[in-house]
């Protein structure tokens, strides 16, 4: 099976080039399984879930997350690839929102990796920003990384 043919002229969806571990949980489209199969001396293998490196994998995952959380987006949920931000005005409301998000994931047979989850934070780093009750600000660590970048000394740098 020639994998290069599916990458020759891809139609690229406009989402960032991110390939989180969670992409491996998205089922492959049945008619595309043979296109991404491979053979080794151990045998013939076909991906039943989306493998790393496919051009549109991030866009497919983002589309899935947008569809799953559609009714909650910008009300109390913001999703970016595999990051889910849940925001609320009170602790009671936040408990309801968290329950809703976790139940929605369970309904859709999607899972949050507990070791990567952070709960009940008053501020959180999200997509290069700090989100808190005071608002949204740039992440100082990101700003520092840019200001410490060495100044170019030639045109080619």
Automatic annotation (TrEMBL):
Q: One Pfam family for this entry, by name?
A: RVT_1
Record's InterPro entries?
Answer: DNA/RNA_pol_sf, Rev_trsase/Diguanyl_cyclase, RNA-dir_DNA_polymerase, RT_dom
Task: Report the domain of life of the source organism.
Answer: Eukaryota
Keywords (A to Z) from UniProt: Nucleotidyltransferase, RNA-directed DNA polymerase, Transferase
Q: Which organism is it from?
A: Tanacetum cinerariifolium (Dalmatian daisy)
GO MF terms held by the record: RNA-directed DNA polymerase activity
Q: What is this protein called?
A: Putative reverse transcriptase domain-containing protein
Residues forming the Reverse transcriptase domain are 1-131
């Amino acid at each position: 099976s020639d994998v290069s043919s599916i990458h020759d002229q891809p139609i690229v969806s406009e989402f960032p080039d991110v390939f989180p571990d969670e992409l491996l949980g998205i089922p492959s489209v049945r008619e595309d399984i043979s296109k991404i199969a491979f053979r080794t001396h151990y045998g013939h293998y076909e991906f039943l879930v989306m493998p790393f490196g496919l051009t549109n994998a991030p866009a497919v995952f983002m589309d899935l997350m947008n569809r799953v959380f559609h009714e909650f987006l910008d009300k109390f949920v913001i999703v970016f690839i595999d990051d889910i931000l849940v925001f609320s005005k009170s602790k009671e409301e936040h408990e309801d929102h968290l329950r809703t998000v976790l139940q929605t994931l369970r309904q859709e047979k999607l899972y949050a990796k507990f070791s990567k989850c952070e709960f009940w934070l008053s501020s959180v780093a999200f997509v290069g920003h700090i989100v808190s009750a005071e608002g949204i600000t740039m992440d100082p660590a990101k700003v520092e990384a840019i200001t410490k970048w060495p100044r170019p000394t030639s045109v080619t740098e």
